[in-house]
Design a protein that fits this description.
The strands form 5 sheets. Strands 1, 2, 5, 6, 7, 8 and 19 form a 7-stranded mixed sheet that branches. By secondary structure, the protein is α/β, with parallel strands linked by helices. Strand 12, helix 5 and strand 13 form a beta-alpha-beta unit. Helix content is about 25%, strand content about 25%.
Length: about 300
């Protein structure tokens, strides 16, 4: 292998990408991380994290800064920018950034994560992380005995409502359709709970607050277009995630939702390209599981590179 070519190029700087960088650096692979359009991933937009082992309570941005510093301390190089193209027709692979710069790498770890689908309504951005959340598991503990709104009607929404039920009995589900779309078993579990209210055929058209936190949401009837305000302390948006895979070439196989397909844990359909974190995980979507898969991807990349040297 030529020294001028990056041994391991990691695309993404969330828990998966940074953990992959730490493991790759400790294996003397001198990894390079392309930070992406949102350095630090989804945790940058959260408040306190209370389920990271060894940290009873830490701000999401602080946790990601610590991980970045750890990766940097063991020899990871960071490059600001967003990847717009991956050329897998040649080896070493070619990776082009939005700046026009192209890098070449013997192995790639894809860890771009996924973006929560947004409502795109007034107040959503303003109160993001201040009462607006997409992760009940992450933030549910902050809403003990408080009023919460869950937006959505699929499995994710039912899971969120079920999880939040451990903390509060003041839950309202707002769904755009006239019936829930979750699997029957999950629907029944929610509908049999008399403390959970479901409002059908409505959308959240605005999120309101007192400049510090959410105080209510405005919902609009899809039939009459009449609006009403519901007081709430938090709004959990659970209308799905979109993996950041649109820029990837066709040979990298994805499922119908855009998640990368992997085999043998982290290997994609292209030899030498690995995937970790939410870009391939549509089930768990936790920081700790992303970090774990980042570890596995780095170990798999190291084995791949070792085989190339022989």
């Amino acid at each position: 292998m030529k020294d001028s070519i990056i041994p391991v190029l990691i695309i993404g700087s969330g828990p998966a990408g940074l953990t992959a960088a730490i493991y790759a650096a400790r294996s003397a692979l001198t990894p390079t991380v392309i930070e992406g359009k949102k350095p630090g991933g989804q945790l940058i937009g959260t408040t306190y994290v209370e389920n990271w082992p060894g940290q009873k309570r830490i701000l999401g941005p602080a946790l990601m800064q610590e991980m970045r510093e750890h990766a940097e301390s063991v020899g990871t190089e960071f490059i600001a920018g967003n990847v717009t193209k991956v050329d897998d027709t040649q080896k070493p692979f070619a990776v082009t950034l939005d700046t026009g710069t192209t890098f070449h790498a013997h192995a790639i770890i894809l860890a771009m994560g996924a973006e929560p689908k947004r409502l795109n309504c007034p107040g959503e951005d303003k109160y993001w992380g201040k009462g607006v959340s997409t992760c009940a598991v992450c933030d549910g503990t902050f809403y003990k005995d408080k009023k919460v709104i869950v937006v959505g009607g699929g499995d994710s929404a039912m899971e969120a409502a079920s999880f939040l039920r451990s903390y509060t009995d003041k839950i309202t589900i707002v769904h755009i359709l006239e019936k829930l779309t979750a699997c029957q078993a999950m629907q029944e579990r929610i509908l049999k709970d008399p403390t959970i209210k479901v409002i059908y055929a409505h959308t959240v058209s605005a999120i309101e607050g007192n400049n510090e936190k959410v105080t209510g949401v405005v919902i609009t009837d899809q039939k009459t277009k009449a609006s009403q305000k519901i007081e709430t302390d938090g709004a959990f948006i659970t209308i799905g995630l979109k993996p950041n895979t649109d820029f990837l070439p066709a040979p990298l196989e994805r499922d119908q939702w855009g998640y990368l397909k992997v085999h043998d844990q982290t290997k994609t359909s292209v030899e030498g390209i690995f995937a970790a974190g939410d870009v391939q995980d549509f089930r768990y979507r936790q920081a700790i599981t992303s970090a774990g898969s980042g570890c596995m991807a780095a170990l798999d990349a190291e084995r791949y590179l070792s085989a190339l040297r022989k």
